[in-house]
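Tokens for chain A. Residues wanted.
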């Protein structure tokens, strides 16, 4: 058996000596060789294999250092993601866990000279949230992978909601067209009926005129003949009035009948009927105008609701409740916090009310908080999104609340049924 074979005592002793961590300054990253002392490291640097690796390094030193830096960063972030995904941990703890692997990429081969410089780089680039405390640097990993998954899921939801909204608009347009066609058909039927009534009235009137003029036909013919002889033109024959009886001026004046007394009650009845018909028509017209205005207001409310109804509702300054069961071990489950900042519309930075810790949580893992009656709320979704209101009452059976808008364009407007999910308590 050779001197340096695997099962020789010398090889076993060397492996035992090299089992633990060695000094970083005696490690060659290019050759991936750890030396136990300064003499061994000097001998290694003078070896032919090391010289060949240094020639490769001399051809593109920046690219080699950048490659080691990327490998170090990916491995370090992978360790944080696996072991400390939702916790705030000291940078030295993570680094000690990282260097426990003998075959890790050493920091002296990267572009970061110290651990502090590397931690500051993580904070600047947004990989982690870093804090400088008297006990050292602390890091909190920012979970970008879950944010991407949430964004993809919400994007699919938006696409489905847009398709459903397009279908609703098409159905609404079809209903409006049918309604307009029906109203036009009714209007045409009404006009035809009015025209028929007018024609029948005119025919009856003409018949009455002709029947009334039969008695004096001879006198009209004589008058028309005389007019034609005198002027040579065609004259219109008019009905002559019957001469009244002679009256003695010394006697009592007889009552003169002008022909209106007999039909006075009938005329007044007709006038009353016409006035009542006009009033009925005016009432119907006002009701029609009122119903049309109500429909327009409802359509406007629906349009406002569609335009302001979003799939995101977080906004700074509101109080929310954490409903993520994955944070139950940390003591954050069903705890309240204030939204300090909104990131990409769906993720909020929440400052917990009790511990004052700051967490980044997706809105799917949060819940709105309803204050006591009389408290201030913010409408976070729907037609009046972004308005502040005063809570008037709560309907626990229908899961809705009655609020009154304060300040702004809709000041004083009372909203009678706002869902719990659309309002949230404002932090004092």
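Reply:
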């Amino acid at each position: 058996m050779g001197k340096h074979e695997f099962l020789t005592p010398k090889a076993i002793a060397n492996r035992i000596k090299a089992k633990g961590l060695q000094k970083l300054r005696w490690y060659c990253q290019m050759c991936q060789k750890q030396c136990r002392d300064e003499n061994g490291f000097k001998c290694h640097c003078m070896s032919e294999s090391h010289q060949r690796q240094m020639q490769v390094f001399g051809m593109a030193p920046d690219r080699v250092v950048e490659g080691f830096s990327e490998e170090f960063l990916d491995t370090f972030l992978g360790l944080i993601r696996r072991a400390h995904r939702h916790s705030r941990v000291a940078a030295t703890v993570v680094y000690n866990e990282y260097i426990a692997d003998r075959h890790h990429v050493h920091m002296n081969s990267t572009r970061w000279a110290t651990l502090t410089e590397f931690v500051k780089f993580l904070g600047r680039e947004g990989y982690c949230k870093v804090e400088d405390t008297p006990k050292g640097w602390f890091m909190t990993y920012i979970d970008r992978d879950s944010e991407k998954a949430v964004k993809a899921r919400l994007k699919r939801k938006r696409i489905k909601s847009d398709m459903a909204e397009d279908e609703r608009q098409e159905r609404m347009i079809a209903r409006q067209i049918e309604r307009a066609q029906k109203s036009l058909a009714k209007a045409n039927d009404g006009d035809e009926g009015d025209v028929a009534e007018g024609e029948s009235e005119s025919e009856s009137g003409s018949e009455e005129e002709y029947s009334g003029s039969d008695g004096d036909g001879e006198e009209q013919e004589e008058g028309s003949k005389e007019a034609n002889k005198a002027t040579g033109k065609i004259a219109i024959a008019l009905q002559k009035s019957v001469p009244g009886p002679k009256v003695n001026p010394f006697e009592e004046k007889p009552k003169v009948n002008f022909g209106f007394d007999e039909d006075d009650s009938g005329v007044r009845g007709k006038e009353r009927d016409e006035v009542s018909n006009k009033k009925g028509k005016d009432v119907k017209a006002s009701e029609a105008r009122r119903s049309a205005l109500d429909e327009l207001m409802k359509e406007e409310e629906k349009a406002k609701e569609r335009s302001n109804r979003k799939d995101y509702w977080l906004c700074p300054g509101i109080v929310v409740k954490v409903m993520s069961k994955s944070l139950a071990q940390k003591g954050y489950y069903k705890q309240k916090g204030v939204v300090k900042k909104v990131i990409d519309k769906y993720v909020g930075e929440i400052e917990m009310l009790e511990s004052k810790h700051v967490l980044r949580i997706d809105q799917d893992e949060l819940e709105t908080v309803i204050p006591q009656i009389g408290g201030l709320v913010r409408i976070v979704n729907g037609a009046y999104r972004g308005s502040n209101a005063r809570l008037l009452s709560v309907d626990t059976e229908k899961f809705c609340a009655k609020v009154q808008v304060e300040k702004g364009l809709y000041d004083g407007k009372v909203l009678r049924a706002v869902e719990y999910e659309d309002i949230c308590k404002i932090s004092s």
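The radius of gyration is 48 Å. The chain has nine helices and 15 strands.
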